[in-house]
Design a protein that fits this description.
4-stranded mixed sheet; Glutaredoxin; alpha/beta; 165 residues
Length: 165
């Protein structure tokens, strides 16, 4: 039951963290911009709009039955939700936008371009992508504490990269 509540909470947080204050897409993408056909079928709700420092937490989509059979993943998802939630106010104060996305592909865009991050099959199931409007990107795999997330975000904002810890 507790796992279902956490997964439901994580999904509700996913729905609540997103497109507030984002201008209409037609206003941000000039009409002369050619769109890669690989991106044409992506639903608008799947995109992460990047207009400054952005942290995207990614996690696998699993059913409650799958989580009951994999208690280690269920624990990792509980910890993931807890730590990113605890760090959220500090990340916002540092100028970051925070998103959660389920699945193995993140669809990212800014006013000038679109790009994607695909989680390699041999990597951790959960993690974080730090990116910015210049398309700098750093990937951190695994669950990190709120202190790790804040320190990594500060380093990324300063340098555009994150050293392995």
């Amino acid at each position: 039951m507790a796992r279902r509540i956490v997964v439901t909470s994580l999904l509700l947080l996913t729905a609540g963290c997103g497109r507030e204050g984002v201008p209409n897409d037609s206003a941000t993408v000039p009409p002369t911009t050619a769109i890669d056909s690989g991106f044409a079928s992506v639903a608008d709700s799947a995109w992460v709009d990047v207009s400054g420092p952005t942290l995207v937490g990614f996690f696998p989509i699993r059913s409650n039955d799958q989580l009951e059979r994999d208690p280690d993943l269920a624990t990792a998802l509980d910890d993931f939700a807890y730590y990113i939630g605890t760090a959220m106010d500090s990340l916002y104060a540092a100028g970051f936008t925070v998103h959660y996305r389920g699945g193995d592909t993140l669809w990212l865009r800014n006013a000038a371009s679109r790009w994607r991050f695909v989680r390699p099959p041999d990597s951790g199931d959960v993690g974080y992508v730090l990116t910015d409007s210049l398309r700098n990107m750093a990937v951190i795999y695994g669950v990190r504490t709120w202190v790790d997330l804040i320190e990594s975000s500060k380093e990324f904002k300063r340098t555009g990269q994150v050293r392995p810890r």
